Structure to design on (132 residues):
């Protein structure tokens, strides 16, 4: 049943960590320690987390994932949020990153056009409101 839904595989893929994380230098950190290292409080340094990333065999994969997904906060692959923003701009020829299209909140995979709905679901909602 679930496999037949068009959104099931992409959603499941986002819930499971990528296989390369098994080799990450940070895999055995306690959550609180990882938060302190990779998501330091404002005004605190991210250097300790970046040092750990330098010794990580999958730092490149981690950085690529953060750049691809558009992670806004924290240290990933040894790069802070500002460093990643600079990398994205460099990759895009100086332009800010393109925003991914918003998808329909009904889970059909269609592109949202209004109120978080695709055209089909938006039209259905308007018709049902007109009948009420």
């Amino acid at each position: 049943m679930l496999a037949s839904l068009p959104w099931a595989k992409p959603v499941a893929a986002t819930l499971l960590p990528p296989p390369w994380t098994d080799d990450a230098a940070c895999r055995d950190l306690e959550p609180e320690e990882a938060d302190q290292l990779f998501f330091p409080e404002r005004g605190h340094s991210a250097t300790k987390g970046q040092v750990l990333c330098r010794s990580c065999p999958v730092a490149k994969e981690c950085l690529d994932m953060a750049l691809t997904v558009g992670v806004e906060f924290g240290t990933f692959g040894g790069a802070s949020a500002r460093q990643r923003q600079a990398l994205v701009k460099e990759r895009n020829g100086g332009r800010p990153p393109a925003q991914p299209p918003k998808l329909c909140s009904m889970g059909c995979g269609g592109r949202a056009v209004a109120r978080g709905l695709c055209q089909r679901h938006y039209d259905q909602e308007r018709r049902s409101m007109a009948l009420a």
